[in-house]
């Protein structure tokens, strides 16, 4: 099975890249929490487009690549008490959390 991500530089979305630092023995716990939070809460928030979770091979990082229709909708989600509970739980598992918003400027593919 081939699974590919489609990132479109022509679509004006707010892209969240959130890097979590985590003890290797807690990496899977964090991914499970983020997955549950997305299914239960995040994907039902206005403006949510997608979320992807990546586990580093050394076990020390989890990367969340997510997109929201607008920065304003992303910021509104941050104020939602239900979403806040999940974010606070993730912060307790991680030793560091580095969320940043980006705009896709260029994409390249093999074919």
Describe this entry's structure for a reader.
The structure is a single chain. With 111 residues, this protein is an alpha+beta fold. The protein has 3 helices and 4 strands. It has helices spanning 27-40, 71-79, 81-93, and strands spanning 14-21, 48-55, 61-68, 96-102. Strands 2-3-1-4 form a 4-stranded antiparallel β-sheet. Strand 2 and strand 3 (61-68) form a beta hairpin. Helix 1 packs antiparallel against helix 3 (81-93). 16% of the residues are buried.
Question: What features would you highlight for this structure?
Answer:
four-stranded antiparallel β-sheet, globular, 111 residues, single chain, alpha+beta, 28% strand, 4 strands
Give the topology.
Blueprint: E1 14-21, H1 27-40, E2 48-55, E3 61-68, H2 71-79, H3 81-93, E4 96-102
Antiparallel strand pairs: 1-3, 1-4, 2-3
Helix pairs in contact: 1-3
The strand count comes to: 4
Q: Which strand-content bin applies to the residues?
A: 25-35%
Distance between the termini: 18 Å
Main-sheet strand order equals 2-3-1-4
Class from helix and strand fractions: alpha+beta
Q: Helicity level, as a percent range?
A: 25-40%
The overall average pLDDT, rounded, is: 91
Q: Please report the number of helical segments.
A: 3
Please compute the radius of gyration using only Cα atoms. Answer: 14 Å
Give the SSE order as H and E letters: EHEEHHE
Largest sheet: 4 strands, antiparallel
